[in-house]
UniProtKB/TrEMBL annotation:
Source domain of life: Eukaryota
A family per Pfam: XPG_I
Chain segments carrying region Disordered: 151-202
Protein name: XPG-I domain-containing protein
Lineage: Eukaryota, Metazoa, Chordata, Craniata, Vertebrata
PANTHER family per record: FLAP ENDONUCLEASE 1 HOMOLOG-RELATED, FLAP ENDONUCLEASE FAMILY MEMBER
InterPro entries on file: 5-3_exonuclease_C_sf, HhH2, PIN-like_dom_sf, XPG-I_dom, XPG/Rad2
Domain XPG-I intervals: 1-51
Length: 202
C-alpha cells in the first residue's frame, strides 16, 4: 500500500490466477473521491501510521480525513486539536517522512537490469530462514510445493502447445478476466477500492 503515497497511479492487489479476480486502486480516483491533494493524502497516511514515524494518538481514519479536509495539513490539524487528547510523539520526524514519500530516491531505469530465471533455492532458504529468521522447515516445504506446481504448469503448457501445433505464451487476459465497471466508494474513510473483479474504465 506504500506505493500509493509514493505516487503510484495504479495499484493491483490480490492477483488470483485461479479465479481471475484482482483488486485495483487508482490514485487519481482516490484523491478525487477523498477531495485531497497528493500532499494531503501523504499527510493522511502519516496521521494514520506509516513505517517511517509514529502516529499521533487518537486519530482514526474518519477523524483524520475530516480534519485534513477541513484544515489542509498536519500542522493546521495540530493547531486546531487538543494536545492532551492528541499528544505529538517525541522527536517526531514529520518533514523527513514527508520527503521520503514526496521526493524519494529512486534508481534510474538504465541502472536496473531485470532477468527472469529459475530461483536459487539454496539462496532463498539462506535469505528467508537464516537472515529473516523464518522457519526453515516451512520454507523448504513451500519451496517443494512451488516446485511441484511449476512442474505441473510446465507439463500443461507443453501439452497445450503440442495440441495447437506450436509453442505459445499465455497472455495476461488468459490469467485475469477484464470486467469494466465504475469504481465506488463506500464511506469517507474508504480508499476507493475497486471491488474484486472490477476495473476502472479506460
Amino acid at each position: 500500500m506504500d506505493a500509493l503515497p509514493f505516487g503510484s497511479e495504479r495499484l493491483l492487489r490480490h492477483l488470483n490466477a485461479k479465479n481471475g479476480d484482482l483488486e485495483e486502486i487508482s490514485l487519481p480516483v482516490v484523491l478525487q473521491k477523498l477531495n485531497l491533494t497528493h500532499e494531503q493524502f501523504v499527510d493522511l497516511c502519516i496521521l494514520l501510521g506509516c513505517d517511517y514515524c509514529e502516529k499521533i494518538r487518537g486519530f482514526g481514519p474518519k477523524k483524520a480525513l475530516k480534519l485534513l479536509q477541513k484544515h489542509g495539513s498536519i500542522e493546521q490539524v495540530v493547531q486546531h486539536t487538543c494536545r492532551q487528547k492528541h499528544p505529538l510523539p517525541d522527536n517526531w520526524p514529520l518533514e523527513e517522512t514527508r520527503q521520503l514519500f514526496l521526493q524519494p530516491e529512486v534508481a534510474q531505469m538504465s541502472q536496473v537490469v531485470l532477468e527472469w530465471r529459475e530461483p536459487d533455492e539454496e539462496k532463498l532458504v539462506q535469505f528467508l530462514a537464516r537472515e529473516k529468521h523464518m522457519n526453515e522447515g516451512r520454507v523448504c516445504r513451500r519451496m517443494e510445493k512451488w516446485r511441484e506446481s511449476r512442474l505441473k504448469q510446465t507439463q500443461s503448457q507443453l501439452t497445450d502447445s503440442l495440441a495447437e501445433g506450436s509453442p505459445r505464451q499465455q497472455t495476461m487476459g488468459e490469467f485475469f478476466r477484464v470486467k469494466k465497471h465504475q469504481s465506488k466508494v463506500r464511506g469517507e474513510d474508504s480508499l476507493c477500492r475497486a471491488r474484486k473483479g472490477q476495473a476502472e474504465p479506460q
